[in-house]
Amino acid sequence: MRILITGGAGFLGSHLADRMLAEGHSVVAMDNLITGSTDNIAHLAGRPDFRFVKHDVSNYIFIDGPIDAVMHFASPASPIDYLKFPIQTLKVGALGTHNALGVAKAKGARFLLASTSEIYGDPLVHPQTEDYAGNVSTTGPRGVYDEAKRFAEAMVMAYHRAHGVDTRIVRIFNTFGERMRLDDGRVVPNFVGQALRKEPLTVYGDGAQTRSFCYVSDLVDGIFRLLMLTPGDDSSNPVNIGNPTEMSILEFAQVVNELTGNPAGIIYRRQDRIAGDPQTRQPDITRARNLLGWEPRVALRDGLDRTIRYFASRV
Ligand code: UDP
Hints:
By secondary structure, this protein is α/β, with parallel strands linked by helices. The chain has 2 domains: 2-175 and 215-241, Rossmann fold (3-Layer(aba) Sandwich); 178-211 and 244-282 and 298-312, UDP-galactose 4-epimerase, domain 1 (Alpha-Beta Complex). Helices cover 37% and strands 17% of the residues. The chain has 9 helices and 13 strands. It has helices spanning 11-22, 79-84, 86-107, 143-163, 187-196, 216-228, 249-260, 286-292, 300-312; strands spanning 2-6, 26-31, 50-54, 69-72, 110-116, 167-172, 175-176, 201-204, 210-212, 214-215, 239-241, 246-248, 266-269. It has a 7-stranded parallel sheet, sandwiched between helices. α3 (86-107) packs parallel to α4 (143-163). It is globular and about 55 Å long. The structure holds uridine-5'-diphosphate. Uridine-5'-diphosphate binds next to α5 and β8. Uridine-5'-diphosphate binds at residues 78-79, 174, 185-187, 190, 202-205, 209, 211, 249, 273, 277.
């Protein structure tokens, strides 16, 4: 297959490019580089089966030749990034999704949307199943991302129903690993960066809020299986992919300090917690297990060890 990956120079997009190339496919990576970086794909430069195109997919996408699959991963994805780029975030979720779907329709390609656990907002159902409709504030600071992705899902289903495009939607829960940006503001790079500098870890709020962290290779494997799934009655409905092992942010901080041997402990920064920051988050992955035969394999501490080694050379 020849696969277009939007956001192909980002954290997830670049790992997907690696996986698709390893499976023998060719990849066109498209990115406007506002949050992605060519550092993430530098090792692929010069390969005949890989091409990078610098382009903002919120504008019309020109692409020569056949395309068999479109994977739409372009978007700022950390709270700090989407607060910095609120309009670009709304545009890439709305206009970018429309343009990427247009490519899939014109080329007769399969389409996969990178959606998010953020569509559940600050959830009132726990753990989150795919049929939960969510608890999202349209006007809160996270609304630019949450509503863009909700619109994107609606647009994908419309192209599926109205145009018969073979579509997939993955709802990605917190994921971490190599190629995250040290300054993207998310809890994993923040804590690991602080720990490696022997600084106290900044816990926002009281640290009782929970997350469930998935190592990137597990996530990529789930997405790969979803893309390759034989089209059927149920293949276009959303699938949660994430690690169901849930912990509080305070517990997570303790694990990072232990693994790095950071003596500086933690500090509470209650005021830095963004309005609408979900209090709990844990994927129900029953659907992924049944449909894809998928579940995560990498333990948190193993994934963190690898991530710490990656960041150690960058702090
Ligand atoms: N968080 C924190 N300290 C930090 C960065 C984040 O306590 O330095 C918290 C944040 O308030 C949230 C959780 O960690 O409750 C996960 O935040 P992240 O930005 O990684 O992503 P989110 O899951 O909120 O999209």
